[in-house]
Write a structure and sequence with these properties.
Length: about 725
């Protein structure tokens, strides 16, 4: 492949062997794994999951884990014309000669890219057509729990934490190969491993109307439901203390340290918050050690603390202070990419600005308190406004706000409330910084598998465009910048998200006609997808419809250990209760999602201890107020504050005050006590259909929202997962 690099743009993408990469002698290894992210080098190099697996698997002396990413169009054409397979970066191993090819499932708009990568590898596309000599094709990642549209392309799909399942899978493959087992017997052995789904051993059954009745095993001994693999203790789990320093530009060039995994807030639209449960934190000492080693190994000047909501990490205040104290002479910046309004403290904001002001983005998601209660986004208008004021008081001049349209029960009052909320945030910021500005980013809800909204319908492309245009026009006419995710991309994402195996031939046909890179602006060809849907006799809109509670869903047999019963009960709160919020089990009573019922697993939080930071210093007791002590202790603290229990000393009282205040903020408000930032809509939850702008204005707003051709995440990704 090297002889082709002089004929392509940005050949540095394909050079490999960067500082930090591991290149083993092929003569010294007996098993080669190619780890792939189905996108360009610039995107895939920033993926934390592959970063972990790369260094984890390379700890085994006889295993070589190497990387491969999709090529750009120029190299893709050269490879196809010459009939050569795509190769790994480290040793230029052709992909059809590796023992195992791992292709991550990052999101649904990458489905055509997955097909493209398998074809460029010169491996048979359909798993059932592969021989004993072909690589085992393995998938995994956040898209694994709704993988049925691409399941026929994979030999195995790993559900859950890869650190737990992937090494066990490789040991099983090596043992089976050593025994000379044929491919089918090897896959049967893999199907017995926890978290390993082998699609060829499952068959979807439909009725005469085309509705899915069940997905059943076709061979004895295969589990009817595959449960995810789970790392119970994140503190003891492997995490690399170094990183690869890329030759070319990448989306993120920084040291990333995962501080916690999972989230128990329970936002009803958020798939990551359900499939990554329970909540598990690393200790501050371990995080500091990883950050120091990563900086020394790479020379990067920024550390990113990764999680679904870093602001809620138990000891975030002392952690950020100690991290910046230890790296002060290196002028290291701090990035907290996932923040929830209400979780930011003054101390954290001051710590972030000590070196450089990185951008701030918060995600209210909905514009009114009523709708935030519907989606279980447990933040109030007051918390949002307090966060904005804190940011402005500390010198920031720019704030990004993220919202979605299309939530169940949404009315025009909620859209007007969104506009008013953004304007109010700008007004509050300008009280402290004259040039303070807000920018709104809008997306469309895609009801994801294994969320309480998985039974709800998704807006059509036309409905989404009307609502997005309405909000964008309302903000731009008042001088507020606003961008929104292409409704066409959200429509396609919804179809692929909620579909089943019947879409596999469609995806293969689209890629064969030049499809791919659907998440990149300017490359999505919805007309091609619609054309192929029609040729295959598939009504794509049918996948966006509402589902009956008793209906079998395409992903029912792929379990994240959260039960369908819990999700349905949580969804029904929206229709039956005046106050439909659910407690965060981190601070309060168990919500009954059942993750902790299946084995000895619990939320594991960073402990206060004598020396949590490893610097020989005991933290002031008041700082331990961020530690979730459980429902019983919270009740005791409230009694203490009410004078029903003695206060031993002022430090203890300060800690109790802080924790009790936090618990009260998260406790749902009683009906009638709610304070509205804007005028609420009609009392009914469904309300009248919004009156939207004329089609001409919608078209103008669509044109105004078009940006440069750059990669964009799928529109439904409300809470960013780790990079």
């Amino acid at each position: 492949m090297d002889d082709l690099l002089s004929r392509v743009e940005r050949p540095s993408r394909y050079l490999g062997n960067e500082p930090g990469a591991i290149r083993k002698d092929p003569a010294q290894v007996s098993f080669t794994v190619a780890l792939s992210y189905p996108d360009l080098y610039e995107i895939g190099m920033s993926n934390t999951g592959l970063h972990i697996l790369y260094y984890l698997l390379n700890q085994e002396p006889e295993v070589a884990a190497e990387r491969v990413y999709l090529p750009e169009r120029d190299l893709e054409a050269l490879l196809r014309d010459s009939g050569r397979p795509l190769c790994t970066l480290e040793n230029r191993v052709p992909l059809d000669r590796v023992d195992l090819l791992g292709i991550q499932l990052p999101h649904e708009l990458a489905y055509a890219n997955i097909v493209k990568l398998i074809r460029l590898a010169r491996i048979p596309l359909w798993a059932t057509e592969r021989s004993d000599d072909d690589p085992i094709v393995v998938g995994g990642g956040p898209g694994a729990f709704g993988c049925e549209p691409v399941a026929p392309f994979y030999d195995v799909v790993v559900l859950g934490d890869g650190e737990e399942a992937f090494p066990a899978l490789i040991r099983a493959v090596r043992a089976a190969r050593a025994e000379g087992l044929p491919r089918r017997e090897l896959l049967l052995r893999l199907a017995a491993l926890e978290g390993c789904y082998v699609p060829r051993f499952y068959e979807p059954v439909y009725d005469e109307r085309g509705l899915l009745q069940e997905t059943r095993p076709t061979v004895p001994g295969v589990p009817p439901v595959v449960r995810k693999a789970l790392v119970e203790d994140l503190e003891g789990a492997f995490y690399p203390d170094r990183a690869i320093v890329p030759y070319a530009y990448t989306v993120h060039s920084r040291v990333g340290v995962e501080v916690m995994r999972g989230c128990t807030v329970g936002c009803r639209f958020c798939q990551a918050g359900m499939i990554y449960r329970p909540l598990r934190e690393r200790s501050p000492k371990r995080i500091l050690d990883l950050a120091r080693c990563g900086l020394a190994a790479t020379g990067f000047d920024e550390v990113s603390l990764l999680s679904l909501d870093t602001g809620d990490y138990t000891l975030i205040d002392p952690l950020t202070k100690e991290l910046l104290d230890q790296t002060a002479d290196q002028r290291v910046g701090l990035s907290l990419p996932s923040l929830r309004a209400g979780s930011l403290t003054d101390d954290v904001i001051r710590d972030i600005r000590r070196v450089r002001r990185t951008s701030f983005t918060i995600a209210p998601e909905a514009g009114t308190q009523r709708l935030r209660d519907v989606i279980n986004k447990n933040i109030s208008d007051e918390e949002i406004f307090e966060t904005v004021e804190r940011i402005a008081q500390n010198g920031w001049t720019q704030l990004k706000l993220y919202f979605m349209v299309g939530f169940p029960t949404e009315t025009r009052a909620d859209l007007d409330g969104l506009i008013d909320l953004v304007l109010r945030c700008r007004e509050l910021g300008r009280r402290h910084v004259r040039r303070f500005n807000c920018q709104a980013s809008l997306g469309t809800l895609v009801p994801k598998p294994w969320t309480p909204f998985q039974w709800d319908r998704q807006l059509s492309e036309a409905e989404a465009r009307e609502r997005l245009s309405y909000v964008a026009h309302g903000l731009r006419s008042r001088g507020v910048g606003c961008k929104y995710h292409d409704p066409k991309a959200s429509w396609l994402e919804g179809v692929l998200t909620r579909a089943d195996r019947r879409l596999a031939p469609v995806i293969a046909a689209v890629e064969a006609r030049g499809g791919g890179f659907e998440s990149w602006q300017g490359r999505l060809r919805v007309d091609l997808w619609r054309e192929v849907f029609a040729e295959h006799g598939i009504d794509a809109e049918d996948f966006l419809r509402a589902r009956a509670p008793e209906e079998t869903l395409p992903w029912d047999h792929l379990s994240p250990r959260v039960t369908k019963k819990y999700l349905l009960g949580d969804r029904r709160k929206v229709d039956r209760l005046a106050n439909p919020t659910t407690f965060d089990c981190r601070d309060d009573l168990c919500s009954g999602c059942a993750v902790c019922f299946e084995g000895d697993v619990r939320n594991r939080l960073a402990k206060y201890g004598e020396d949590p930071l490893g610097n020989g210093k005991r933290l002031p007791l008041a700082l331990t107020s961020r530690v979730a002590l459980g429902h019983g202790v919270a009740r005791q603290l409230e009694k203490q504050l009410a004078g029903e229990a003695p206060v031993r000393d002022q430090a203890a009282k300060a800690g109790a005050d802080a924790l009790a205040a936090k618990l009260r903020r998260r406790r749902p408000k009683k009906p009638g006590k709610r304070r509205w930032a804007v005028t609420p809509g009609a009392p009914g939850r469904e309300g009248p259909a919004p009156a939207f702008l004329p089609e001409r204005v919608a078209a103008e707003d669509e044109a105004a929202s078009a940006g440069e051709a750059a990669p964009s995440a799928p529109g439904s990704a409300a809470t960013p997962a780790p990079d």
